[in-house]
Amino acid sequence: MNMANLFCEPFPEKSWLLPVDFPLKETFKILSQKFPHSYGNMLKKNILNTSTVSLPSYLYLHLAHDYDDHDKLFLCDQDKTLLSRVPWMIMKSDNYFVSSLFLMPSFEQELSKLFPQKDTVSLHLGRYLFHPSNHVWGLITRYYEAYLAKADERIGIQIRNFDTVPGPFQYVMDQVLACTLKYFDNVRNMYWEHPTVNGDVVEVFQPSQEQFQHTENRLHNNKAWAEMYLLSLTDVLVTSAWSTFGYVAQGLGGLKPWILYKSDNQKTPNPPCRQAMSMEPYFHAPPFYDCKTKKGIDNGALVPHVRHCEDMSWGLKLINNHDEL
């Protein structure tokens, strides 16, 4: 992914990008779970079991969705004093694991100071750090001004489908209509044939029709980022379960979306959706481990501000302490 094509630099005279002569750049290409300087791998081989050990100049944290029990121990407070002596830490992750950091005493106190309203972490970080590049901002502003700026109410609908066979699927349409009663051509045709009683105008727009994810395609990624941002500018948001695309939009927009439940056997779920407890994204692969007792535990029942997800029963998310469950 080319960061420069997606994001502007968030800090004056600073850069997201490492210098071209950064000494570890070539190492990034060979990082893996079994890498010799991997934190989990070093724990597995008992290399980090003593304070007198000679620490490496850098340590790799493998926190991606396929991490194992040793990798997950980074989300415990053990070894934090030891790890503070490592000059460089390199992390690879496709998880939003902030909720687990709030379960760690070494982080929780400082995080609570930074985010007294705990369900606003992604909102503040997203708006502070993720500024669209000039090209992407052009896509966003042109579309918004052409189609959305004059609307009294904007409803954003994001659909992710996990079926491996080509669509479209009627059960998905039925689910969206059951949840919102306002969607794409069906809605457009309904109001074309039966105008609203009071003369209100309902219009349905779709910024792009990429259909499938193309991870390394630069133009595709630009369109995806633009659509996430456009979704965040809506008044009401409907998103798909298990979809990071929707999570980014809700976090940026500070929105509690209506979540379309994941379908089984191509049938419309009943109920079709429910509203999220908070605007925070979900942690899909949390550890189920009590660092103190070294036993399995339900991490969604330890503190009032970390709960299980609406769309994935084993996932975790942050909520505001005073939100109703």
Descriptors:
single chain, 325 residues, alpha/beta, 2 domains, 10 strands, EC 2.4.1.-, XG_FTase, transferase
What's the short version?
With 325 residues, the protein is an alpha/beta fold.
Give an account of the 3D structure.
It is found in: Golgi apparatus, Golgi stack membrane. One of its GO terms (biological process) is xyloglucan biosynthetic process. The protein has 325 residues and is α/β, with parallel strands linked by helices. It folds into two domains: 3-95, no CATH class; 129-318. The protein has twelve helices and ten strands. The strands form four sheets. It has a four-stranded mixed β-sheet, sandwiched between helices. Strands 1-4 form a two-stranded antiparallel sheet. The model has no long low-confidence stretch (mean pLDDT 86).
Quantity of strands, as a count: 10
Average pLDDT score:
86
Based on Cα principal axes, name the global outline.
globular
Helix fraction, binned, reads 25-40%
**What portion of residues belong to β-strands?**
5-15%
Give the ordered list of helices and strands: HEHEHHEHHHEHEHHHEHEEEE
Q: Using the CA coordinates, give the radius of gyration.
A: 22 Å
- Major sheet strand order: 5-6-7-8
* Contiguous helical run count: 12
Enzyme class: transferase
Main location: Golgi
InterPro entries: XG_FTase (IPR004938)
Function: May be involved in cell wall biosynthesis.
